[in-house]
Design a protein that fits this description.
heterodimer; A: 285 residues; alpha+beta; seven-stranded mixed beta sheet; two-stranded antiparallel sheet; 11 helices; 11 strands; 16% strand; elongated; B: 372 residues; six-stranded antiparallel beta sheet; 8 helices; 34% strand
């Protein structure tokens, strides 16, 4: 059974897939001129306080910005308060993106899975905030609470948009993904290193060069450390230990035919990392 | 390869091949005699290399010797205790040329053994049917070959295999009428073309296969062969450059976050694939000719995601596949030749009408002319 990503990674990929050109699925946000501009933002408002929404979509036709926070859990009141106090001048002064003026409009939406959305709604009401909340339920993303100021978004999400098909290429995994899922996504890189020596950071760089070159040193160190830990465990397991051979210059080396190793890696994930026991959360789809 | 020692001594490929032309009676055809036999003919293989380091080649049964000419290497391959010598031209770092005088079968075995190993970092250049058809236009049409095996059945398919060679002056017309025929139409993927390539003071009659083998059938001198090779190599190189510059997933850090660029290419199937699971398992089986392995994720009966490794370059490529369409996402450093390998072989094993398109629906090969 294929391991599944965290809900945060899933929601990120669903919104990204709706806001980039693609023939495989209908990217309704892109078709309505809301186009992915930045992911994993972090900037300071004029008062020096930090804001870090997950995504920024930009509509150059209607001169609007949409920030998206993928939040599969409770509202963080302090973070939400900072979002609420963010004005267009903060965005202009920070020079966050091009062609923004005082006439530009911006808003921020939260998105959660069906299972967690009510928790988010309760937190929002308690904080007396009115950010629109989207819910991902039964392959549809729909407006669950409050309203968009942009009429196009209000109409689209009131009806609900299909997110049955989405790509997981652009945002492969995040810190909250399981070991099983991270290891699963590393399989192609592991296969590519058969016969060559490698370190955990080589795997990360090979799998997601854009992420590798863009994340900060502490986050990279944490991720590399985690991959190292996963490999250590894998190398000692009886399903895989025959494939791990002594390396001289780097830490790891794999031997074996591509098909045999691929099969063994999947078996290990399924049997030892619990992929087979992960329950599919239907509200995700 | 008899006489290769002279190249080892002088590094003069042109004189050597001119000599071969004289000795083998190539130039008789100047008077109009037809020559269709491949035996003993000069064969040049265009090879795509992701391995700038020649030391990678000096292993097992392969020996590469320097010549006085830096760009020419004497390439010696040992098979069943016997040495076979070919000439390797590395003047273009990415697209190498190998010259062989052995017959087709022997040459092919040697080259296959060398190129198709998983750790070779080498691949053939692959000419999809539409591209080969364009190359027909570089000279007078003299023929074409078709080879088709129906490996993937689509809805309502009859099982057919096609193998055919046509020699004559109206190749394109014959091809057009075959394409209108049902059910042969889908099996009209070109496996090779023959053309008469003329230059100011001579000609070369060539057979070009869809995996980049150029067989010189007759010629007035070796120069038209070199010129045709160079023209097609430059065009192919341009196509690969366009794929790698415009169709890789890229990301770069800004002061405030990450910008991402994704512009996948798509293979459009002319008919729905009947058994998507079989199709996916065949393509990603780590076997020839596709050379792809990876993790296959069935999202639903009609939608698969595959995180794959290209066993030629060891580059990573993601795929999304439904019964009508295959989206291909090349990773930042992945080799664009995978696209050509996939399209060419899917046309040979599935349907000639398979198209490569971009997000704007434009036919990729239609928009890349050979005069670029």
């Amino acid at each position: 059974m294929t391991p599944t990503s965290s809900n945060h990674t899933l929601l990120m990929n669903k919104i990204i897939s709706l806001s980039i050109a693609n023939k495989m699925y209908k990217p309704v946000l892109f078709d309505n001129n809301y186009i992915l501009d930045l992911i994993e933002l972090e900037f300071n408002k004029s008062d020096g306080r930090k804001v870090n929404p997950d995504l920024l979509l930009k509509n150059e036709i209607s001169n609007r910005l949409l920030f998206v926070e993928c939040k599969d859990g409770s509202l963080e009141p302090d973070q939400a308060k900072r979002y609420n106090e963010m004005g267009i001048n903060d965005i202009i002064v920070a020079k966050l993106t091009s062609n923004i003026s005082e006439e530009s409009k911006h808003e921020l939406a939260y998105i959660a899975t069906d299972k967690k959305v009510d928790k988010l709604k309760i937190g929002m009401d308690k904080a007396s905030l009115v950010f629109p909340i989207l819910v991902s339920r039964d392959s549809i993303i729909a407006l669950h609470h409050n309203h968009f100021s942009c009429e196009v978004l209000q109409e689209l999400f009131s009806l609900g948009v299909s997110s049955k098909r989405y790509s997981d290429t652009l945002y492969p995994f995040g810190a909250d993904d399981s070991d099983a899922y991270i290891f699963y996504r590393l399989i192609p890189a592991l296969l590519s290193f058969i016969g060559s020596e490698f370190n955990p950071n080589d795997l990360l760089e090979k799998t997601f060069p854009r992420v590798y070159s863009n994340i900060g040193r502490p986050a990279k160190k944490e991720l590399v450390g985690r991959i190292g830990h996963i490999l250590e465990k894998a190398g000692k397991d009886k399903i895989l230990n025959n494939f791990f051979i002594a390396a001289v210059e780097k830490k790891y080396k794999l031997k074996g035919g591509t098909r045999r190793l691929n099969k063994a890696l999947n078996k290990y994930i399924d049997e030892k990392l619990g992929a087979g026991s992960i329950q599919v959360d239907l509200s995700r789809f | 390869m008899s006489g290769v020692q002279r190249i080892g001594d002088t590094g003069d490929l042109r004189s050597y091949l001119e000599d071969v032309l004289d000795r083998k009676g190539y130039k008789k055809d100047e008077e109009g005699e037809e020559s269709t036999a491949f035996k003993g003919k000069i064969k040049t293989y265009l090879i795509e290399s992701n391995s700038p380091n020649l030391n990678n080649l000096r292993q097992d049964r392969v020996m590469v010797k320097d010549t006085p000419n830096k760009i020419l290497k004497s390439f010696i391959f040992n098979k069943n205790g016997k040495n076979y010598e070919l000439v390797l031209d590395i003047s273009d770092e990415r697209f190498w040329m190998i010259y062989s005088l052995y017959d087709s079968e022997k040459s092919q075995k040697i080259i296959n053994d060398w190129v198709l190993r998983n750790d070779s970092k080498l691949d053939f250049v692959w000419f999809p049917s539409k591209l080969l058809e364009k190359y027909m236009g570089l000279g007078t049409e003299t023929g074409f070959s078709l080879k088709y095996i129906n490996k993937f059945r689509t809805n309502g398919d009859k099982k057919i295999n096609v193998s055919m060679r046509f020699w004559g002056d109206s190749g394109k017309d014959i091809l057009e009428s075959l394409r209108k025929n049902t059910p042969i139409g889908k099996g009209t993927s070109l496996s090779g073309i023959s053309l008469n390539y003329s230059v100011e003071d001579g000609f070369a009659k060539e057979n070009i296969s869809n995996f980049g083998r150029f067989t010189l059938l007759s010629a007035t001198s070796i120069d038209p062969h070199f010129l045709l090779l160079d023209k097609i190599k430059r065009n192919y190189s341009n196509i690969i450059n366009v794929i790698e510059s415009n169709h890789r997933v890229e990301g770069h850090k800004t002061e405030f976050g990450m910008k991402l660029k994704s512009n996948p290419l798509y293979i459009e199937f002319p008919k729905e694939i009947e058994n998507l699971e079989d199709f996916v398992n065949t393509i990603f089986s780590a076997r020839l000719p596709f050379r792809l392995s990876g993790t296959i994720e069935k999202s639903s009966d009609d939608f698969y995601r595959i995180h794959a490794v290209d066993l030629h370059s060891k580059g990573l490529v993601d795929f999304e596949i439904d019964p009508n369409l295959m989206a291909i996402y090349l990773n930042d450093k992945s080799c664009g030749n995978i696209i050509m390998r996939l399209v060419t072989n899917m046309q040979s094993f599935m349907d000639e009408k398979i198209k490569l398109v971009s997000n704007d629906d434009s036919d990729f090969f239609k928009s890349h002319s050979i005069d670029e």
